[in-house]
Amino acid sequence: xxxxxxxxxxxxxxxxxxxxxxxxxxxxxxxxxxxxxxxxxxxxxxxxxxxxxxxxxxxxxxxxxxxxxxxxxxxxxxxxxxxxxxxxxxxxxxxxxxxxxxxxxxxxxxxxxxxxxxxxxxxxxxxxxxxxxxxxxxxxxxxxxxxxxxxxxxxxxxxxxxxxxxxxxxxxxxxxxxxxxxxxxxxxxxxxxxxx
Length: 196
Fold this sequence. Notes:
The chain has 196 residues and is an alpha/beta fold. The chain has helices at 13-22, 34-38, 40-44, 62-68, 80-89, 127-130, 150-159, 188-195, and strands spanning 51-54, 72-77, 94-98, 106-110, 115-119, 133-138, 161-169.
């Protein structure tokens, strides 16, 4: 499988921050993603009160939706603006605290404690900081990660998953020679080799 000219493409953290600052957030969905609604039973697998992780969460509306169902939601995002907008747009009171293990990072958490969003690079997280998760909703993270960082990303995700975790992944299929990404094209064969 050919990923075309994307193999060496790099998007710097500053570019993502600029997208949030300028409102160029075409990747944000105002309504919940239909695939999460369609496959919610796969993610939950008959369980309630799960810890669900949102990698590169932005201000995903699904975080509140799952928290309202009684799940505990944890997300990570480099843009503090995105995280604060999430709380404001859903009228959720929150508090901020530094994360001692990560220089300059913050945790923004609802006062009820059911949604905790980490403002830092995803690669600064570890299970000793955020714990492990029963489910992961990866709507746009793997396809946003620089192709050269995919193995690092997947290795981290595996360390954050409980034994019986469910991982829902959304990718996009297109000719990578016609679009430089992101979102990046990740062929199914690569997904299988990354996750094993």
